[in-house]
């Protein structure tokens, strides 16, 4: 191993990291503890963890002591091989209150204070990455645009009111209350939009709010939240508004909005300005709710908006976001919150599915 030069400040700094993850106080970090440390910043495989252990374990006891740990982090050869896992982590793992004079290594994200100390930025923010590219919401938006264009290109003059909803593409994809047995409609209605304004508003929201989540949480987590919001939006509508034809991606959009609240809740201590982010997201939700209430009850607007889908999507985004989005440093309280959100979501969506399947009297009595 090529041992790098180190000074007293380096030793103090890296010892604080070592102690943080020596969970059992044994004076060594085993493979499980090292995996826990690294996986807070990247999707690290067990193979990578084993290689790190073998490479850094000079006394061949299968574990890493504090000296081996410090050498591992400072080793320039190791940095070139595993730098994306190690250096991106050590830049911010120590809480801000524990400041030390040190020279950052690797991809540094630090700020210098007036007293000459350097301290890591928020652990959450330094985990943003452009790889893999955040294309999920972009590709979803492209699909919605293509469906909208195709739907409006094939004209059908039989219906004059809300004509866009009765074109061939829309008829095949829209949530139709009389065709609840066609299960795909609980999802595919998100590709159908009534008018350019409806489409553009959803595209702006899902791209502007979805991309920041993708940059930190990977595409599959954001897609899970989005699809869960779409499905819960249609299920909620079928129960509370069973006569409504449903179109648009608003269920998924609202899920993305409230997923930001879930993200703030589970990463509050690791974010640089969580209160500001919470204020902005809360203000956005309050303004949208106020606008919806005004339109429905005060302005006399008769536009058939599926508010039940908005509520269902928002609830899904909050619950699914808690147990799908990445928690930088889970606490015991957040672990309990994870299980609570997971079980509540399973209970709610399971109940909604069962009602849709077996509560036939509710739907047969509905007039269209």
Automatic annotation (TrEMBL):
Main localization category: membrane
| A Pfam family matched in the record | EF-hand_7
User: According to Swiss-Prot or TrEMBL, what is its membrane topology?
Assistant: Multi-pass membrane protein
Task: Give the keywords, sorted.
Answer: Calcium, Membrane, Transmembrane, Transmembrane helix
Top-level lineage group: Eukaryota
Cross-referenced SMART domains? EFh
Q: Which residues form the EF-hand domain?
A: 9-44, 45-79
| Residues passing through the membrane, by range | 186-213, 219-237, 244-266, 272-293, 305-325, 337-359
- InterPro entries attached to this UniProt entry: EF-hand-dom_pair, EF_Hand_1_Ca_BS, EF_hand_dom, Peptidase_S54_rhomboid_dom, Rhomboid-like_sf, Rhomboid_IM_Serine_Proteases
Q: Does the keyword Transmembrane helix apply?
A: yes
Cellular component (GO) terms are:
membrane
What are the recorded GO MF terms, alphabetically? Answer: calcium ion binding; serine-type endopeptidase activity
Compartment(s): Membrane
CDD domains, alphabetized: EFh
Q: Does the keyword section mention Hydrolase?
A: no
Would you identify the family this protein belongs to, as annotated?
A: Belongs to the peptidase S54 family.
Please identify the protein, giving its name as recorded.
EF-hand domain-containing protein
Q: What is the lineage of its organism?
A: Eukaryota, Metazoa, Ecdysozoa, Arthropoda, Hexapoda
